[in-house]
Every structure is written in structure tokens, then in C-alpha cells.
Specification:
Oligomer: single chain
Strand content: under 5%
Number of strands: 0
Radius of gyration: 21 Å
Order of helices and strands: HHHHHHHHHHH
Helix content: over 70%
Length: about 220
């Protein structure tokens, strides 16, 4: 083993710390971006023409804002919102500082995924709820979110996997985590075993998220 991964064996503590940092970045940013993305996705559905709270100006504004944020490459977004990151966190470097660009980088993507998932909900069910006098809030929670739950879980898993990838990009510019180790040590010092093991750990995370998502989709689909 020492002949295959000699540098990794000397960096056990660093790898444990980097793995924790990656999990921390992924979990916290997923929770915050999940709340923002779900809210924005629901607003896009209900305010669109023909929606239960149809408001074309609001829809157009939200739609364009979502498209704008999704169009900015993440590596550029890191630099563009650095003043905001500095204002909110007090620094632009480090694991906690990376949460701000991670949230801004992923929640518009998730919002669009949520919108697409909720648009697949049978319109007849929505109309039936409206005809029975259900309030907009009741329709959102009891129809859209309940009926669209399996699809929401699927898009959430896709988003979480994409978020893991973004944490590695953030790590490449000083955010810490496995991306930082893979680039600043493995790549920069030509320690290929470090890069390889960092990649394997990231792949294990992705597979774990995917397996959990598949299991969760089966559970909610049978309810």
C-alpha cells in the first residue's frame, strides 16, 4: 500500500479534514440553496400565465433573474460576488466563505429543476382543488408539493451531486476541501496518488448520494 499511495499515507489527517470540509460545504449550502430554490421554483410555477397566482410581470422578472444567475460560470461567480462574501462572512477565503458563492451558484439551477418537476403535476388535480375552494397555499402544499414529491426528490439528488462538483471548484481557489488537496497538493506537486484518492473519495460521495436518492424515490413513490 505504501508503494501505491505513499503521499496519501502521510496525509491521513489532511484527508480527513478535507473530507469533513467538503461534507460541511455541501450540507450547509444544500440546505440554504434548497430553501431558496424551492421557494423560487414554486413562485415561477404559480405566477406564470395560467398559474394559480398568475402575475406576468413578476413571473418575467423571476424568470429572467433565474436565467441570468444560471448563465454565470461558477468560477467567475466566485470573483464577482466576492465583495458580498466579504461583507457577509468577513473574508473571501476559507470553507465558510465558500458557502455564499455555492448557494448563489446552485439555487437558480435547483429552482429551474423544481419548476420543471412541479409543471409535471396533473393540471386536472390543480383545477379540482381550485373548484373545491382550496386556497393558493393549500394547493401549493397539498397538491403541487405532495403530488410532485417523487420528482422533487429526483431533482434534489441531481442538484446535490452537482453541488459536490462545485465544492471541488471552490476548493481550487482556497475554499478547502478535497478540491483544494487535489489541486494545490496533488496536481501542483505532481503527487498523483493524492489527486487519485481525492477523486475516489468524491466519487464515493456521489455514489452514496445517488443510492440514497434512489431509495428515497422508491419510498415516496409508494406512498
Amino acid at each position: 500500500m505504501s508503494a501505491l499511495i505513499p503521499n496519501v499515507l502521510q496525509m491521513k489527517a489532511e484527508f480527513m479534514q478535507a473530507t469533513w470540509e467538503t461534507l460541511y460545504m455541501t450540507a450547509i449550502s444544500a440546505i440554504v440553496a434548497g430553501i431558496l430554490g424551492l421557494g423560487l421554483g414554486v413562485l415561477l410555477v404559480v405566477t406564470q400565465p395560467g398559474g394559480i397566482l398568475a402575475d406576468r410581470p413578476s413571473y418575467e422578472l423571476l424568470d429572467k433573474l433565474t436565467n441570468l444567475l444560471r448563465s454565470v460560470p461558477f468560477i467567475i461567480l466566485l470573483a464577482v460576488i466576492s465583495p458580498l462574501t466579504s461583507y457577509l462572512v468577513g473574508t473571501t477565503v476559507g470553507t465558510t466563505a465558500s458557502l455564499v458563492p455555492l448557494v448563489f451558484g446552485i439555487f437558480p439551477f435547483y429552482a429551474r429543476q423544481v419548476q420543471n418537476a412541479l409543471l409535471d403535476v396533473d393540471g386536472g388535480i390543480v383545477e379540482a382543488a381550485q373548484s373545491m375552494g382550496s386556497s393558493p397555499a393549500a394547493i401549493i402544499f397539498r397538491v403541487y408539493l405532495k403530488e410532485g414529491l417523487p420528482d422533487l426528490v429526483r431533482v434534489s439528488i441531481v442538484t446535490a451531486i452537482s453541488l459536490i462538483g462545485l465544492t471541488t471548484m471552490a476548493g481550487a481557489i482556497g475554499a478547502g476541501g478535497l478540491g483544494d488537496i487535489a489541486i494545490s497538493i496533488g496536481y501542483a506537486r505532481f503527487e498523483n496518488d493524492v489527486t487519485l484518492v481525492a477523486m475516489i473519495i468524491i466519487l464515493v460521495m456521489v455514489f452514496a448520494v445517488q443510492l440514497f436518492g434512489d431509495w428515497l424515490v422508491k419510498r415516496v413513490s409508494h406512498q
